[in-house]
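Retro notes - structure team

What went well: the batch runner handled both jobs without manual restarts.
What didn't: labels got mixed up in the shared folder, which is why I'm recording both outputs here explicitly, each with its sequence directly above its tokens.

Job 1
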Amino acid sequence: MALLKALGYGYCLLVYNIRNAVGGGCAEDDDPGLSDYGRKVIQAFNKYGMVVDVNHTGNRTAL
């Protein structure tokens, strides 16, 4: 995340419509919520002052 922040990124999507390693997407019936890896990603976003963008995530993942 430090590199992304240094390159000027201020935010990043966690998921785009379908499940990935971070969590579930809004286009799926099953939303497992945020994964352990996803929690680490959000901790890194917070550490570097980046916005956590929950657009396109499933409801459980966004919460």
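Job 2
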Amino acid sequence: MFKQMKSDIRTVFENDPAARGLFEVIFTYSGLHALWLHRLAHALF
């Protein structure tokens, strides 16, 4: 699970030139939150 999260964060840095820092990406990118919560909900279903 954490490997996938690290991969998602790495993908954000590769595709978004405005991403400046790790904490910014983790705490402010709503698309990333939606992706993580979707995966969690899918696993719990």
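One thing worth noting from job 2: The CA atoms of residues 13 and 28 lie 13 Å apart.
We'll revisit the folder naming next retro.
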